[in-house]
Amino acid sequence: MVLHYIFAGLIGYLLGSINSALIVGKFVGVDIREHGSKNAGMTNAIRVFGKKKALFVLLGDILKGVLACIAGTLISRDTQGVMLFAGLACVIGHNWPVYFNFKGGKGALTSITVLFFADYRIALILIGLFIVIVALTKYVSLGSMTGAILLPVFGLLFFKGIEFFVFSMILTVMLVWRHRTNIKRLLKGDESKLNLKKKAQLEQ
Fold first, then answer.
1. pLDDT of 51-62, one tens digit each?
2. Structural domain span for residue 123
3. Per the CB 3.0–4.6 Å rule, which of 66, 76, 107, 122 could disulfide with 4?
4. The pTM is what?
């Protein structure tokens, strides 16, 4: 069983390290970590590359989460823990990718993809809350962190068990930590708001 976790974690991490925003940046000759919020994630991809190119980032971040969870399920069908571990490792790889000097994104999109495999009900609730918060405030970071903080709460409300609770707590701590600079900007009132109508930085 230990080998199952090790194997699933390795596959998940290597898949997660395939950072879509950085790969798209390679094709356009731009390191997204040097532009916008300097985060290699979906929101900054919209700011820097524009909506069309950011779509590839969206699909890539979702796909690697899906593949990691499928791999974890195939490795061990007897316990959800192996799948959760593969998904968690995928998010870790996204945040600290071995292929890109361990400087990646914040893992929100990949996290919600993994959560769909764990419990689609909780995933849909958190996506709904995320949409409402972003629609009201235009702060993607606030929506992401609110969802992360509420994840363990819904895990308890749905009686998901200890494995899910540990998984959700690690995801929550990791996502909030990765958003620590956003927290500082929110407190100062300097956080950038989502503006889908604004032209991409590369087009300006």
1. 889 999 999 999
2. 2-197
3. 76
4. 0.92
